[in-house]
Design a protein that fits this description.
Pfam families (chains A, B): HTH_34
InterPro entries (chains A, B): WH-like_DNA-bd_sf, WH_DNA-bd_dom, WH_DNA-bd_sf
Order of helices and strands of chain A: HEHHEEH
Radius of gyration of chain A: 14 Å
Keywords (chains A, B): DNA-binding
Protein name (chains A, B): Winged helix DNA-binding protein
CATH architecture of chain A: Orthogonal Bundle
GO molecular function (chains A, B): DNA binding
Largest sheet of chain A: 3 strands, antiparallel
Helix content of chain A: 40-55%
Oligomer: homodimer
Number of strands of chain A: 3
Amino acid sequence: MTGFKPLDPLLHSQLRLAVMSLLIGLDSAAFTYIREKTGATAGNLSVQLDKLSEAGYIEIEKGYNGKKPVTTCKITAQGVEAFESYVNALKEYIG
Amino acid sequence: MTGFKPLDPLLHSQLRLAVMSLLIGLDSAAFTYIREKTGATAGNLSVQLDKLSEAGYIEIEKGYNGKKPVTTCKITAQGVEAFESYVNALKEYIG
DNA sequence: TTTTTAGGTTTATAATATAAACCAGTTTAT
DNA sequence: ATAAACTGGTTTATATTATAAACCTAAAAA
């Protein structure tokens, strides 16, 4: 239990962590919903979602709600696992 | 479920958080000790300790052990408070 | 038809983290 | 006594990250 395990830099970011935290409870959420809940700017959120997506932590699906574009995000199994590992590692620091 | 409170950026850093985590348990520690426990490079540690010091989260005292220079760090009351607030805020994110 | 709004993306800039290079002094080896 | 190597750091340069500003496309409203 001794020693500080490295913290996944992808998750050790306020906004990305908030996104993952939301998604782990929801399983699926729209861009606009995440934006509201996190209070992030659209630009920032767009960038951070891409990073999570490229890491395989979330899946991003682009569709439409009527004529309006809707970007939907879903956490992956890999994402859940990474989140849990991160939380465990973090506990050494704050426990 | 009050939403995501901002995370003190000074503490939301792997190395600085590890330092604070160590100091909160020890009350006082030498630079070299912190370096060993955290595995940080001296340069990085030096920079991060300065930041914590400038924020008033720790106090840095320079003395000697015989002829050898010894830099000693101590967490402040403000530092303890900041750490606790950070941990509380973080709990919203990680459950 | 022009303006505004929704739903984003791209790009430029600011902030951060990190390591490399360095410095003052001490100990060890020659 | 002098050179080489080690301690205990600091300073500076660079890579990475976070963030906001500027922008784009299409739809709805005026």
